Amino acid sequence: MNFFSLGSMVPQATVLTLVDMPGYGYRSRLQWGKFITDYLGGRKRLRSVYLLIDANVGELKQTDEQCIDMMNSLQLPFRIVLTKVDKIRNTDAVVAKVTQLVQDRASFFVPPVLPVSAVLKYELAELRLNILIACGIVKPPY
């Protein structure tokens, strides 16, 4: 796991830390081990988990399903970030399909699915705002 301190975003705010768990998609839940389950389940100040799903796949992989099941069992709110949308033709259709698949499986999913592209810088500002709202640093605009 990699920890990134994002500093204090507003005066008197707690330091925001982003934790990256690279490679979870290449391993099964058993290989993640008890450490990650304990880490996620034991973080009282954890505000949300963002599960990154490759838009090229267009559906949930087994490891995505395992992660979603773990979020449900730990009762952790989580959001879906659909990455690499610059590589697909019909972003709206893939977002709708992934949304439906996740909603059918998950109790703690917080919509909407967030489509992004690092290459095109597509919707990155929306993702950043979503993170700040999830952390309670910024109030929702609605």
TrEMBL record:
The protein's superkingdom reads Eukaryota
Give the signal sequence positions.
none
What are the record's GO terms for cellular component?
mitochondrion
Q: What InterPro entries does UniProt report for this protein, alphabetically?
A: EngB_GTPase, P-loop_NTPase
In Swiss-Prot or TrEMBL terms, this protein is called: EngB-type G domain-containing protein
Source organism per entry reads: Dispira parvispora
